[in-house]
Design goal:
alpha/beta; Jelly Rolls; Immunoglobulin-like; TIM Barrel; eight-stranded parallel barrel; six-stranded antiparallel beta sheet; 9 helices; 30 strands; 19% helix
Amino acid sequence: MLKPQASATRELLNLDGLWQFKVDFNDEGFSQNWAAKPLNTELQAAVPASYNDLFTDVAIREHVGWVFYQRTVRVPRGFAGERILVRVDAATHEGIVFVNGTEAARHVGGYMPFDADITAQVSAGEEFLLTVAVNNILTNETIPPGRVVTRDNGVKQQTYLHDFYNYAGLARSVWLHSAPQTRIEDITVVTDFEGSTGSVAYSIGTLGQAQISTELRDESGAVVATGAGASATISVPNVKLWQPGKAYLYDLVVRAHVDGKLADEYTIKVGVRTVKVVGNQFLINNEPFYFTGFGMHEDHIVKGKGHDNSFLVNDFELLKWVGANSFRTSHYPYAEEVMDYADRHGIVIIDETAAVGLNQNFAGMFGGPKLPTFGPETGNDKTQAALLQAVRELIARDKNHPSVVLWSITNEAETGIPEAVDFFKPAFDLARQLDPTRPVTYINVMTEPFGKCLVAPLADVICLNRYWGWYEDHSDLDNASKHFEAELKGWTEKYPNVPFIITEYGADTMPGAHSIHNLPWSEEYQSAYLEMSNSVFDKFAGVVGEHVWNFADFQTKPGIFRVLGNKKGAFSRDRQPKAAAHTLRARWTTLNNRKPLGE
């Protein structure tokens, strides 16, 4: 799905702001048709923002079920004669769009956009009542999965097996936009280069019959290449490559004509670059690339997972300051604005689906009965179908971003049983079918080591989450080092022609806690832990990256092993550096994207 934009043939109206807001505590919103009339409420909620931390009422924060957002919208007169659509950038985890009380569209999957075509229900120049109902419930058939239980006091409780808070609501923007009747529906771009000549292969999908022409413009606006037809490959002389830390973006202007008249125009950014896995090396533009950075979260005080461009700029400035060249969208796709910004600033991304929590071994840690990870009550055919849909939507949305170099299918699933191969192999196959230009990975959990994991052979790159010195060998870094080195030796000997990225390693740390004895939870221990881990990585040429868990402290659901959230951040939740941030900066700003040689 193409992101809405203003062009010579399209118009765009942002609907962010304060919306009327009502929580459906008694499951009556649909039977009473709340969407057909103004909501009976005194509450207003900001869009975009998660609603959970906006209000002081704990019942709202912990609500399980539907909430309703509502506002009136006037359709611009310039939309007359065009298709009129409402775009919801994300509704966590299910959204239904109503126009004057009539359902226009619904979507399941909390981190992906969807459109509602409302052309037949509204008129240019007139107002309509727009309602978006949002459901935060996770089941064994959703991605991520979860379960709803009813406590002894009759209150519903959402349980889940992932370690971040289940923020909900309209966390990203909502738009009203127009598009021509005959229009450009999809664009796929694949880039390459040889010597100083680049190539941009494109394929255009249209709604209705049209003649397609293209122009490729450089950053000065000059046309450097043209093409004709719905699919073609155009050559780019004296190409300027998109490179990590040094982005260069062309504009591909696509025009659709009908009977010689312009029917539609759409422009996308194009970064010319290549990505390959060769042996145990990860190559960008045929040069070895070493990942430095973090697993991150869309998580901020008050807004929860709500997107905010000021937070976006500040987070990227901190990435630059600390010497990070990359991050992983743990554990779900991030807002499109994040991807666009990474394209512009040369930050490399591992792009991940929301398939986190497919591991019943975590039941003891997060609560609930221990069930088989794959079975009728847990991961079944419908769960797999939801995963495949998540892969389709992720690649459809992000396939043209030069910053995205690796697709991640799942995080910390149980992968040591045959059922895991049956469950995940179709997702690996689908990702390669939809995008043969990028490698595919998964994130291996510590309980599924090299002698046990059965999914590793499916991956082009193996990503490891390891906590030697924290969850294992806690406070004993010398022992942790020995065990970490032994495990990496086992992995790299078993898979000598596969690159490895350590996608999580970290230690919880309270900001301002200090100890001359290097005690856990102190800033000194966190720094020593990272230094120990890095010294292990440097012994293995097949380790091509290190992503610290986490960029910043983040909110989790309440639990006795979390002190007001996860505290593994190199930065506090309000983005102040811990000592670990300075430790990482000293290392990463001197690596210059090249890791010291391994054994």
